[in-house]
Batch of 3 targets.
Target 1
Amino acid sequence: MSETGEKPLVEMRDISIAFGGIKAVDDVSVDLRPGEVVGLLGHNGAGKSTLIKILSGAYKPDGGEIYVNGEKADISTPRDAKRYGIETIYQTLALADNIDAAGNIFLGREVLTPYGTLDDATMEAETRKVMARLNPHFRRFKEPVKALSGGQRQSVAIARAIYFNARVLIMDEPTAALGPQETQQVADLVLQLKKEGIGIFLISHDIHDVFGLADRVSVMKNGKLVGSASVTDVTQDEVLGMIILGKCPPGATPGPGAS
Amino acid sequence: MTAPTVPAALKSSRASEGSLLSKLEIDVRMLGMLGALAVIWIGFDLLSGGVFLTPRNLWNLSVQTASIAIMSTGMVLIIVTRNIDLSVGAILGVVGMIIGVVQVQWLPSWLGFNHWLTAPIAVLVAVTVGGLIGLFQGWMIAYLAIPSFIVTLGGLLVWRGAAWWVTAGQTIAPMDTRFKAFGGGVEGALGASATWIIAAVACGLIVIGLGLSRRRRVRFGFPLRPRWADAVIAAFACGAVLGAATIANAYPLPAGIARRWAEENGIPWPEGGLFIPHGVALPVVIAMVVALLMTFLARRLRFGRYVFAIGGNPEAAELSGINTRWALMKVFGLMGVLCGISACISTARLNAATNSAGALDELYVIAAAVIGGTSLAGGVGTIAGAVVGALVMQSLQSGMVLLGVDTPLQNIVVGAVLVVAVWLDSLYRRRIK
């Protein structure tokens, strides 16, 4: 499966988690290399979001291990994940609506003055820089993010993830709330970040979204991994078969969930 | 050709209208509240035949407001995090009883009566006990995930009962002489010179603060307020401070006390009596310092940012790596500390520790915060708003006392005002959207 001898940036091995007896994620293994985009596909409720929430530290797995750069990583809080350079753009965006863009981008990692107070001026100046790159028309720096449009809120969430030199980026349904033009912007950004050597997990239930951007896909169904494949080895129809029927085509490596 | 120019002209005039307020960067809500306060004050003054707006009444009003105002600054943070604290009045009660026992029964046996350390130790005990009670309740709310409504409803009963338990219901009096200064009154009136010095320092801080904020904006090339706008704000703020100082200094000590003071200081008693100004009261200074510190904490410190983020979106705060539980526990601990400070003020003002001190205070404190624009949905609120809210509540109450309105009717009016104020506020917010 591995084309090079490169160590995976992130490897999740045999991850399981259960909520009240229901196994949301059951023995799933996925990996990600530098500069690679891996699409994580499956129906709503297949366990994709739960799996990546384990990687981002929001949930603690019941079983399994996470390796970052080949070394075992101990991730039990979002803060731990960020320390390993794992940043997440959540489906809900996870923005504090009553705070402005700078406040959200630096939330939990505020820049302080030598006196220990918030250095709002520096944070706003940095926000202006990073937003100029992502969304050049963005002007509403002083307003709470509640007042922003869907696309603007999305760019704030993306800015928060990429500002701190992420090595692994998790994007959960990044284009679900966006129009065609903004969707294209996100796609361009994914390709640009990929060029910078960042590994990206792209979670989506829309196979067309993923096929254009991903190098590999991993498909989940009912909490189990159906299989993983390079996008060059399988057709879109075959992947659709994996998603809907759990049927693993010959071009893919089957997982425990393959029927 | 003319048709398109008309809307353009309209638009530009509207833009400049909006820009006057936005250039001054003044909170329209706050302006509305100060307007309402002015209406209440002038209304009561007319109805009472000019008694309300006298230095004497305003001085008393400021002292009466201090205790509620101090607690309301903490309540803002609690409500901002989508919680509530119903136990503040009961915490005030039990802390008041404990410091009463400490300074009347314990300390005199070690230090002797009227020792200078008695008052500082009493304050330290009040702040510590209040803080520990708050932290304990916060721990149950944050780490055991019991709803704050329940924990503090239980706390209301528990601490009120504990207040009775301290002395089996006995009232303790009188308080230490120096301690009585915390209650205002003659002992706590700081006098004319101190008042002018405090006012001058406050004006200096206002000017320096505006200057610093201007310099920071210049350094980062952010949009600047026009120079005249800064000047107008500075003039208004300093004018308000100096006006308040003038009023406090226009209220003389009663003749008997002034005479005693003159005798103690070897000043001959003149024919027409001596005009010795009260000056600002110590509890009022404490309340203002608390309000400033709390504003600083809410706006300039990381802790304050976390409090607002938790209120805006608890899940997002958690996912950002904020230790939301510890932050929540600290918010309740802070509330307890403020209850301790208020306990000192109300015990000293009454010159007695009674187990019913602070009864119903929780409702006035919550009302002050809510009238001051704190949203019960969380995430929104200002310290300054809560202090003005406390002043509105207290103005209504003491104005009606002045007019001789019966207590039941007073409660009806205050209750109705609370509901109407929140209704108007929600209308305003909806229009802003």
Target 2
Amino acid sequence: MSLDTISLSGKKMEVSNKKMSFWESLYLVAIVKGLFITIRHLFTRKVTIKYPEQKRPLSPVYRGQHMLKRDDQGRENCTACGLCAVACPAEAITMKAAERKPGEEKLYREEKYAEIYEINMLRCIFCGLCEEACPKDAIYLTESKVMVASASKREDFIYGKDKLVMPLEMALRNSKNKVS
Amino acid sequence: MGEILFYILASITLGTALLTILTRNPIHSAIYLVICFFSIAGHYLLLNAQFLALVHVIVYSGAIMILMLFTIMLMNLNKEDETHKSIASKIAATIAFCLVGIVLLAGLLRTKPVVESYFQSGEDFQSIKVLGKVLLNEYMVPFEFASVLLLVAMIGAVLISKKDKQKEA
Amino acid sequence: MESTIIIEKGIFIVIIFALTMVMAMYSTWAERKVAAWLQDRIGPNRAGPLGLLQPLADGLKLFSKEEFIPDTKNKFLFLAGPAISMSVALMTSAVIPWGDKLQIGGRDVILQATDIDVALLYIFGVLSIGVYGIMIGGWASNNKFSLMSAMRAGSQMISYEVAMGLAVIALVMMSGTLSLREIAAQQSGMNWNVFYQPVGFIIFLVCSFAETNRTPFDLAECEAELIGGYHTEYSSMKMGFYLFAEYASMFISSTILAVLYFGAYNYPGIEWAVENWGVNIANSIGIAVLFVKICFFIFFYMWVRWTIPRFRYDQLMNLGWKMLIPIAIANIVITGIVILLADKFL
């Protein structure tokens, strides 16, 4: 078998440049065939879903908006080590570290915490490398179960801690579930 | 009513015909000519000759003027390209035009108004059925001559536009 | 008597005008819906139920867009282009018989704006003027792509008008009249012309695609080569006029196809309906039947649009001049021979 007759997919077609006969060059038969193909699509099931009302099920490993996690006692896990920012291929993450003051032990788990933690959602490619890099299990992309919402200003896409940190009630609920 | 319409149409015809000659922009003058043709079709309609009017619109404004516009648009005539004719040719053109005008006027003045000599044949000559019968019975020979002439012109056009195969080789 | 006729015709014309507009409006909606369906999508469904208010939203959007006139010396011609296109698209409906007649208050109301002797020629005359809207608009835009597109549209329309005319001549030879009313009346019952003139019908159909600048012959607005076509420089409602004119002429040419070849308002059993149900009901059904036929052809236009890719320009010209015209002429000759033989032996 010569090389140009092999067809691995079984769909290989020979292109022919043979001269069309008069009847063929009227295109009528071909057009009628084509019309039948298109009309069949009129009756097929439509693939569109009506998005805001209807949503496709998300895969269990999807990656959505980031969430900075709290531990069982509602303390932030993040220590502002900066490994996520280093790992980020899109350079979307910036942060500023601060030292934990006495009396803030309820809020932050370690002595160092992120005073400012910002992710630029326009730069983020949702690759999940930050999640992999984090030594403290502080950042997750699936946990929040939300997609990044649209906005009309660029500044609105820079998400600060107000949007990223897991809500306290959620952390408490989680710990309650774990106990029971 | 008819008379008022006639005067309006006549003024449009004459006005646009003059503008055709006087405007500098070739496209504008072609468009004036189209309007002129339309008003002539209006004259035909006033004379109750619908067939003639419509054929006039189809042939002159619909086909010939479009081709004219085509060539003018493709030639991209600018003011810079405008050729200036010599004074001698301008004078010659004026004289020739005046002579033709005098001949036409003299011819028209000599004709008698034919209104009195109309007679009722009982046939409606505006109907295309009658028109077709007249064309293909009484005026068969000139009709066929005209068609042969057009055919010859068409073949000639095809012949000119065809590339010379021997020269190419 | 005179004034009643004038009033009657006036009302009728207004109705036809409104109808053409509504049909053109909803053709834009139908175009998007059909396009979506044929591509396994749903199509516009947000504005109103089934997206039925979409044309209004589109119109509102077009009206509120910025009106932009390019820097050209021919402002008047630039404005005249869409106006000509639109008025020409609407003019044709004057001679179309929308139905047989209705009896209102003991009078016969003929459902046609005007029944002229040379209605078919009138349609061709108006069609041939239609090129001016595109040519003038394209030229006055002062943009070489618009000009090229106008050229293409012009030459395409002239070329296909010839084949269209020749296809109709065979029909006229059979029916022996140019009046659309008589042609419609001759096709009573199922005596439709398409059964006698199938070749002529196909040629006419192909040519009407070319005349309305629809795919596969929409080379005039071929985005890949010519940006937007002859209306590249147009914005706001002037652009809307061009688009609207396209849909209006699509509606009109569907009507002409239905009237010439598909029996106009006739349906099998119309005589029986007239006898049993009266003229009004029978002819009202006739109008409805005509509109069903028209809607089918409009759908066909859209169906073809999503089936056949655009022709290349030389293919277009070859098809027009070297295929359709010879076939149309052969069709005329064969029709003539058959008519002669039928006269002799039947």
Target 3
Amino acid sequence: MLELIDISFKRDNKQILEKINLKLDLGKFYVITGPNGSGKSSLAKIIMGIEKPDSGKILFNKIDITNKSIDERARMGISFAFQQPINFKGLTVFDLLKIAINKDLTKDKACDILSKVGLCALNYVDREVNNSLSGGELKRIEIATVLARNPKLAIFDEPEAGIDLWSFQNLISVFKYIQNNFQGITLVISHQERILNIADQIILFNNGKIEKIGNKDNMMKLIIKKETCCKGVELCE
Amino acid sequence: MNKIDENLLNNIIDNNILESDSYNIRKNGQVTKRKTNPYIDIITKKDGTGIDVYVKDNTLFGIIDIPVIITESGLKDVVYNDFHIGKNANIIIVAGCGIHNTSKDDSSHDGIHRFHLKANSKVKYIEKHYGSGKGSGEKNLNPITEIEMDEGSSMTIESVQIEGVDNTLRLTKANLLKNTTLIINEKIKTSHQQHAKTDFVVTLNGENASCHITSRSVAIDNSYQEFNSIITGNTKSFAHVECDAIIQNQAAIKAIPQIFANNVEANLIHEAAIGKIAGAQLVKLMSLGLTEKEAEETIINGFLK
């Protein structure tokens, strides 16, 4: 279980997150949504240790991880798929998966992981993780590195960002697979209705605070109502 | 061969040299072992300054190993090697130099390699440089590679200098005729107070000549590297030069690209990027469980792979 207690985070004199309290349970698929700049990605980075909160505490399976480094958290079972996948000159998809899985990796096993994200593995294992791959391919490789770790908590920061519609269709299948098969906690930051539709619980962020948490049906009604009310410009009360 | 010789050879040549088709081992300025075959001949120059390697027309899949090892401190070895590659031949040449220096005297090897590629021949040239030994004397390597490419020929150069060489001044010159392709992949890592300077001068003189140069280098500690390239397109031709470098600590790298399109059909591209390891790369690998130090090593080793 992941528990956030009074997490606050300020940057450049702007309050990004204000006293966030949240409990995430094992086996559930959570989606955080909300307007741009509402603090969603900052919270995800704070959970992974990429950013440090100004105050508050993070408990992961009852252990205080607030001051633990990124790699310590990774070794405890937290994994993070970046919004903008990172390029590595010289490192291949196989190299990255081998690091992710942290043990001997065969080409067969690598292929098995890549097929879960809809990539025809033999075409990819020896490719460099660089700009020669499309945005959709890089995104799916990024997700594959998270799946390879079989984490206890998997965080996906706006997986739909920067990919075309065709790749997005495939991405939805990947998240449906995760929803059906993944035993740990899944936390996805997303604006996409089709990802929200997969969620067990939706967490609505606004102005650095959690506005509401609820099951998919209730939350979708609320979100659609807000969109209609505000014509997609801004959330209103 | 003693253990030091074997270690030097293992660091510059991947295969077991004594099992090769043909080879010429030069140690401390003298030829110690040589093997030839009916297709590949190796002859010592009359003035003793080096060797001539003759590859017959239509020779396929020939492999020639020509390592140089230096274990005598203070030796300044200069060698001229000429490679005459026959028409339609397809061969691999594995060269390289390993210097072991345990004393205070500087050791150096200046290898002047001249390639004459006849029409439609193909050459892959692999060159590794390596230095070992804890003496205060420097280990210096200054290779010069001159390439003449006749119509339809192609050449790929894989050049690696990963550690232990104090000073390097490399010069690669090539003249490309019609329908020729030259591919150069160079990898250099320097540390401590080491200096490495590498110059490429390529002239595209034949229609549809193409040249691709990729340089990846890492400079750490107080080391210094310089990359110069002068590519001239005198006709309808193509060139792509890519220089990527990572610097750490107090190291410095200078890249001076020059592309000269001397014909409206010449298409010449140069890309250069120098910088420290991207923070996002470190964060990504740490999120996969590597410590910061492991992540740094993984990025550098991958970059130079």
